Amino acid sequence: MPDWLLPLLVPLAAALAGALLVGAILLALRPRGGDSEGVLILADRMEALSDRLDAAVAAQNERLGRALAESADRTQDSARRIHERLAVIDAARANIEALGGQVHSLASILGNKQARGAFGEVQLRDMLADRLPADGWAWQFSLTNGTRCDALIRLPFPPGPIAIDSKFPLEAWQALRRAPDEAARAAAERRMAADIRKHVDDVARKYICPGETAEGALIFLPSEALHADLHALFGTLVAEAGRRGVYLVSPGTLWAVLGAMRALMRDVRLRAEAQQLRREVAKLAEETERLDRRVASLKRHFADMQADVQQIETTAQKITAAGARIEAVEMDPPAAAAARAAE
């Protein structure tokens, strides 16, 4: 029976019992001559009692209605919160399923050699494009020995261009991580050590060309976990590879290395621009010196010209004076001329 039904049945049962009791009393006290007045008084009292019972039942019903309404509101609010939580759980479940699909896809990629190589190449290329200028690196560059490296970072000498290889054998590492016992783990470690040594030998032989590349090359590992395991389990081989000029880098360490290389390229570019600016300043100083010589020569020519002008002015003044004298002589009358001659 529901919890809300019992409070409703109790007042109804009480009202019904009261009504039955009133009816029974009325039947038992039917009017018999002189007792009619007492019966009427008892009937009035029973009626008043019935009214009070009805009022009590109505009040109880009203309280019960309010309680039921409040209970319904709380139930609806709880249902609404439950639906919201279910929606959140559904969204989380969808995200988990999507993440599981991505993890499965990543596992499929890493399980296939060709797909794994393509994944490493794409990751390497994105990092190079993001950290270095376009003219600072080349993709699938062919060296003079006929080897094609995955990428070549064009650094100036020293140290020189650095070749990068993005392929690495992961089968032995995966077997090492899945080894069920110590014997399988030891076999996987021996296989992984042999694979590392062979790959380092190939990179050192193919990607380090004296006079063409730097005295070192990089092996890009697309997994931070693999990089950590190599340093933790095969530190001797990693140190040996470093002595041969082959360095194993993860995405995190390559990011830092590319940052240093970009700073080196910027420094080289600034030095080249400074040299070019110095040459231009030297040319400007030479042109300025030539301009000074030509200005001095022009000043000398101008001084000579001024002297010539002054001499010309003096000659012109003399000519003007002689012309004036000649004109004065021609305009004198013959008598005045004779008088001056006699004097």
Automatic annotation (TrEMBL):
Please identify the protein, giving its name as recorded: DNA recombination protein RmuC homolog
Q: Which gene encodes it?
A: rmuC
Q: Does the keyword Transmembrane helix apply?
A: yes
Q: Which GO terms describe its biological process?
A: DNA recombination
Q: Provide the species name.
A: Dankookia rubra
**What keywords appear on the UniProt entry?**
Coiled coil, DNA recombination, Membrane, Transmembrane, Transmembrane helix
Look up the coiled coil feature and give its residue ranges. Answer: 267-301
Name the family.
Belongs to the RmuC family.
Q: Which Pfam families match?
A: RmuC (PF02646)
Task: Describe the function of this protein.
Answer: Involved in DNA recombination.
Q: Where are the transmembrane segments?
A: 6-29
